[in-house]
């Protein structure tokens, strides 16, 4: 009888120890979860530093090295396609314009190199009388991108596009808006139209606003719209 009692007591001690360990482990994970949630809420809305991590899928793909002069000169497109973008006000000279489509979720693709800009192929081309849509990165994991200072453009600033055949088209800025991310999709129909009826135009797009750690993106999109003034 005493042996049975001794065995039963040992079993009770064993299960109590397991229960205590389980409780301690649960408390640990709950504290980690609460800390992580508190940390992200604290960081929500703060501007992301350029050395902070970009979205994980972009970190593996983005190129942060400026194209060499030779690479720029050797970049060739069909004669009627946009080839180079220049915005002297922002210190952008002959940024390569890369033809782009849309991603898996219908979002506009952007070039792998943060110093290139992307031309949405289904939008207009220089000299067609339509609206050309161009996007670019505001930064990568470590350095600023081609459109980092896009919000600084003012009305009357000139955006220059050179075609594959060397023809130059100049567009004058008439609008520069920061649109909250939850409204940016609906604004795209406006971005695809000219701000002045009957005039050829160009719309530039990049990420802007504050960085959301929770959502893994900036909380706004910058839209610059400009109309053709000379060709």
Q: How would you concisely characterize the structure shown here?
A:
This protein is of the alpha+beta class.
Chain-averaged pLDDT: 82
Q: Which sequence of SSEs, written as H and E, runs from N to C?
A: HHHEEEEEEHEE
Q: Could you tell me how far the N terminus lies from the C terminus, measured between alpha carbons in angstroms?
A: 105 Å
Number of helices: 4
Compute the number of strand runs: 8
Shape by Cα distribution: elongated
Strand order of the largest sheet: 1-2-3-4-7-8-6-5
Helix content: 25-40%
Describe this structure in words.
With 231 residues, the chain is α+β, with helices and mostly antiparallel strands. It is 27% helix and 30% strand. The chain contains 4 helices and 8 strands, in the order αααββββββαββ. The model is unreliable at 1-7 and 27-59 (pLDDT under 50).
